Amino acid sequence: MYLFFFALLFIIYQYMNEKSIFESQENKIENLGVKVEKQNDSIEILNNQIINLDYFTLQGNENAMTYLENQGFEAAAVEATVYDAIYEYNFEKGNNPLVPFDGMNGDMKINKLKFLNHKWILADFTDGKYWGEMILEYSFNEKKELVLNTIASFLYPQ
To answer: Residue 38 belongs to what domain range?
Structure first.
């Protein structure tokens, strides 16, 4: 009889112990599920932002890419060519000729470029202390040579 009661108590103890472990694991799974759902929502929001930001790029704008392809150019090749041409000016002695301001603390050089479409680029420039931004226009002439023009610029006050 004692053995029966002892076995019964042991079985009840094991049942309660396993039940608490099971409930604890279920709670952890639910909490992780909620975290995963929040993270997926965050990822979806970020992906939507990337899609919206990517529209104002040469590679993300289907119309701009089609325009260049109709002209006989490949969008990625155009980007590489324009990047190289603009940054090549930085290696020349003195200011970058595309920057309409003379450097006050050194030579004005272009730091960053962002292609907006098949015609325009945003550029950031600095002389190490003073910095500004400008809009560049790029196109190709009849000889398929790159032509760069500064449309507008702004030098931030110190």
So the answer is: 1-55
CA distance 51 to 44: 11
Q: Are residues 97 and 26 in the same domain?
A: no
Three-state secondary structure of 107-154:
CCEEEEEEECCCCEEEEEEECCCCEEEEEEEEEECCCCCEEEEEEEEE
Cβ of 116: how many Cβ atoms within 10 Å?
16
**Exposure of 93 by Cβ count < 10 A (0-12 exposed, 13-18 middle, 19+ buried)?**
exposed
Count the domains in the chain.
2
pLDDT digits (tens, 9 = 90+) for 15-65: 888 999 999 999 999 999 999 999 999 999 999 998 888 888 888 888 888
Could you tell me the end-to-end alpha-carbon distance of the chain, in angstroms, rounded to an integer?
A: 93
| Assigned token pair, 29 | 């799974």
CB crowding 119-152: b at 16 or more within 10 Å, else e? ebbebebbbeebbbbbbbebebeeeeeeeeeeee
Tens-place pLDDT, residues 90-103: 998 888 899 999 88
| Same-domain pairing of 42 and 104 | no
